[in-house]
Protein: NUDIX hydrolase
Amino acid sequence: MTPAQTAEDAADDVTRVAVSTVIFSLRRESDSPTLVLPLVRRTRDPYEGLWALPGGWLDGAESLDAAASRTLSETTGLAPSYLEQLYAFGAVDRSPSRVVSIVYWALLRADAASTELIDRTKDAPDSATRNAPASALENTGWFDAASLPRLAFDHNEIVDYALWRLRNKVGYSRIAHGLLADEFTLADLREVYESILGRRLDPANFRRQVENSGTLIPTDRFRTGSHRPARLYRYNRDVELAERGPLSVRH
Amino acid sequence: MTPAQTAEDAADDVTRVAVSTVIFSLRRESDSPTLVLPLVRRTRDPYEGLWALPGGWLDGAESLDAAASRTLSETTGLAPSYLEQLYAFGAVDRSPSRVVSIVYWALLRADAASTELIDRTKDAPDSATRNAPASALENTGWFDAASLPRLAFDHNEIVDYALWRLRNKVGYSRIAHGLLADEFTLADLREVYESILGRRLDPANFRRQVENSGTLIPTDRFRTGSHRPARLYRYNRDVELAERGPLSVRH
DNA sequence: TCAAAAGTGTTTCACTTACACCCATGA
DNA sequence: TCATGGGTGTAAGTGAAACACTTTTGA
Structure:
């Protein structure tokens, strides 16, 4: 009954509640940035050795939201910039014992993601799509969301669904800002949209759309680099990343 | 540990999983139709006497979807035309004992709703907003969604959230058809939208929009009545009521 | 001075909105 | 015949898409 590294570990035959999280972040390397997510390697029996979503058992004295934050922090050390409940998965055969998983999905700012895990994996890359586990935090690693290996339980389907929700939500909310640091250029923001949606966007039209949306605050600073300097913007925190209706009062 | 009439009944101090459903239907009386939903009166201690959402405990051998259908049928005898998971509610203090509620929301066709419950309540109306319980199905009754009494647990918030989701989804999906019988006129369909959205829609523009959406199949039949007969349509079942992404393969 | 990204202007097109108008029926 | 909802036509408005164009920097 002790909290496990990932959600589903059998005990007795009562149905138990686990909480897991799909955390997306953006890795900027090579040409275009790619969506990545942290996984945890299972160290006990159901699906031992396979990678799984970070999570753990719901504690009796905490809310679902709190459990998502806690288990995410315990297993990966990460603190997301956006966290939202995704879905409750409860197929009978999804685990040897009966487990209902309340799954959250989250976004991590690019600066927060690079510190904890990615930096420590540089010295032992042993696969095309994955980096070696970061030793300090047990068996964790970042994976390309577009080419995952076979995961434990029904976690492949869960990630697919989370990706679908992310792509949907990017179309009608300002959620993409959750993947960027405080200051960013319009090209940065556009790259986020492009890598999530999987298609190029017209820079001119993109600029007008976000400028008219009222979510950006221009700063006086510029990013100087190869060509004409680009103005840096910051996110207008008065605007919610996503409209959540009556649920936004909780939290 | 026997299934209860509504979801949250205490037993011991382990966290348990309940499944409840917010079922919307449309009552066509007076001038404009109103959204109604069935509630169940609690017959035991936490919140005894108050009305609550129909639901019950998750059985160890059934999926969440199946549990929603089963408990809905057991408590109200209703079979919805649309069923979708709404949210998992798990605040620590939402019930005396620890209960995580997986809440679904559903739509009921107007013809299905009128048979079971409404007809039997005509003889004993004792409140402005509610009808007396239908005797054959214990303590159940239909309520106007816009003016609910105080409900058990956090069920008022849950209904608010379900209403928000319904209104949202009506804007970008064909879900409103789930409230109508097989054949309907464009005025019928427009009334559904109007009563959910709470505003009038231009009949001419509404007609063009749904005609161009490809979701309607015109029949040769007409509804004759007061004025010019209106063509009857039926729903094109090749089109999903709502896009659900990777989740639509389950079920 | 040249390549390339930053940023502006303009046209086109699709779709919504508003509303005038005709059609068909029961009373 | 007339009131009323069913159904069609059409012009204005809005915003996205496409793309030509100017600006500003590093090399």
